[in-house]
C-alpha cells in the first residue's frame, strides 16, 4: 500500500489518467446512456488498466457521479453577481440549461431509476450532491457576509429549496422549465428568508 | 361505436371491469414492478378481453397511471382540518407515507425513467397529475374562502411548492423524508403566501 510520490504530483500522470477516464465516461453517458457504461469499456477507451479505474472508482455508479460532477462544474462556474437574488437566478438558470439537454436528461433518468437499496449507488449519489452543494454554499456565505441572509442560514436547505421545483417538473410532472419556473423558485427562497427573519410575526 | 346503456350504469358491469382491471394492475405494479406489466397479463388476471382493456386504456402507461391514481386516492382522502396549515401538513404527510413504501418507490422510479419523448407516457403522466392536483385544489379553495389565501391563488402552484422538496429528496438526493421535511415544506408555502400578501414591502 506504499504511495509513490509521482501519483500525487498535480498535473502529473494521475491527473491525466483521471481526466481521460472521466472524459471517456462522460462520452458514453451522454451519447449512449448509463446502461452502456462498463468499467472495462472505460478502461479501454482511456487506455489504462481496469484495476487503475477500480482503485479510484469502486463502482460504475461512482464513476458516473464523478463524471457528471466534473461536467456540471466545468461548464458552470458558481455565479458571483453581487446579490443573493442575482446569484440564485444565475445558478438555477445554469441548472435548467444543463438538465434541458436531452442527453443529460437521459442520464438523470437512468440514475434516478437505480435501486436505492444499492449502497454503492447511494454513496455515489451522496458524493455527487455533496460536491454540487459545496460549490453552491459559497453563494450563501457571501449573502450572509452582505447581511442578506441570517448568519445561521443552512446552505444545503437554501439550495434544496431553490432546485426542488425544477427537478419536480423535470422528473415527476414533466411540465415545462421556462423562465417563470426560475422566477418562482428564486422568489420562493427569498420570501422564505424574509418570513423567517420576521420571527413571531408570521 | 354504438354505446349500450348498460356500459354506463354506475356500479354495473363496466364499473366492475374497471375495478378488477385496476386491482390486477396495482397488484403487478406493487409486487413485481412496471417492467412486468403487460396488457395481456392484466386482461387474463381480470378475466376480460384484451380489447376491453385497450378500449379504456390505450397503453400500459395509462393503465399504470390510472391504477396509481386509484390507489393514492382510495387510501388518502383529501384532508379538511379547518386550516390551510393543517390541510397542507396532513396532505404532505399522506404523500410521504405513500412514497416511503418500498413498492411504491419502485413504481415511481420506473415511471420516472420512462422516456419523456414517448407521447403515451407523457399523456398518462399528465392525466395522473391532473387527477391528483384536482383533489388538492379543494384545499386551496377552502383556504381562499376562509381568507387565508388571496383569491387569485393558483392551486397547482401551491401544491407544486408543497410537494417539490419531498420528491427532490426521494428521487434526486436520496436524503431522508422525516417530519422536518414536512415542516419545512409547509412553512415554505405559508411564507411565500405571506410574502406575496405584503406586496411592495418585499
Structure description:
- With 202 residues, the first copy, chain A, is an all-alpha fold.
- Chain A has one domain (59-201): Tetracycline Repressor, domain 2 (Orthogonal Bundle).
- Chain A is 71% helix and 0% strand.
- The first copy, chain A, has nine helices and no strands.
- Chain A has helices at 13-32, 39-46, 50-56, 60-75, 84-99, 102-113, 119-145, 155-173, 179-197.
- In chain A, helix 7 packs across helix 8.
- The longest helix of chain A has 27 residues, at 119-145.
- Chain A starts with 12 loop residues before the first helix and ends in a 5-residue tail after the last helix.
- Chain A binds chain B through residues 102, 105-106, 109-110, 112-117, 122, 125-126, 129, 157, 160-161, 163-165, 167-169, 171-174, 184, 187-188, 190-192, 194-196, 202, and chain B through 102, 105-106, 109-110, 112-117, 122, 125-126, 129, 157, 160-161, 163-165, 167-169, 171-174, 184, 187-188, 190-192, 194-196, 202.
Distance between the termini of chain A: 58 Å
Helix segment tally of chain A = 9
**SSE succession of chain A:** HHHHHHHHH
Number of domains of chain A: 1
Please state the oligomeric state of the protein chains shown.
homodimer
CATH superfamily membership of chain A: Tetracycline Repressor, domain 2
Largest sheet of chain A: none
Helix and strand composition category of chain A: mainly alpha
Our Rg estimate of chain A from Cα atoms comes to: 19 Å
**What is the architecture of chain A at the second tier of CATH?**
Orthogonal Bundle
Global outline of chain A: globular
CATH class of chain A: Mainly Alpha
Amino acid at each position: 500500500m506504499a504511495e509513490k510520490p509521482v501519483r500525487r504530483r498535480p498535473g502529473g500522470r494521475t491527473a491525466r489518467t483521471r481526466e481521460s477516464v472521466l472524459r471517456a465516461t462522460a462520452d458514453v453517458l451522454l451519447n449512449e446512456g448509463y446502461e452502456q457504461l462498463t468499467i472495462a469499456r472505460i478502461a479501454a477507451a482511456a487506455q489504462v488498466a481496469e484495476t487503475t479505474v477500480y482503485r479510484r472508482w469502486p463502482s460504475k455508479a461512482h464513476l458516473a457521479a464523478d463524471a457528471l460532477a466534473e461536467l456540471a462544474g466545468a461548464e458552470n462556474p458558481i455565479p458571483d453577481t453581487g446579490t443573493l437574488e442575482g446569484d440564485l437566478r444565475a445558478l438555477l438558470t445554469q441548472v435548467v440549461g444543463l438538465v434541458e439537454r436531452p442527453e443529460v436528461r437521459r442520464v438523470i433518468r437512468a440514475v434516478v431509476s437505480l435501486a436505492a437499496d444499492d449502497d454503492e449507488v447511494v454513496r455515489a449519489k451522496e458524493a455527487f450532491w455533496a460536491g454540487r452543494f459545496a460549490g453552491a454554499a459559497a453563494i450563501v456565505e457571501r449573502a450572509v457576509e452582505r447581511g442578506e441572509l441570517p448568519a445561521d442560514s443552512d446552505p444545503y436547505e437554501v439550495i434544496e429549496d431553490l432546485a426542488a421545483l425544477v427537478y419536480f417538473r423535470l422528473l415527476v410532472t414533466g411540465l415545462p422549465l421556462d423562465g417563470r419556473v426560475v422566477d418562482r423558485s428564486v422568489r420562493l427562497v427569498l420570501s422564505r428568508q424574509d418570513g423567517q427573519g420576521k420571527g413571531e410575526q408570521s
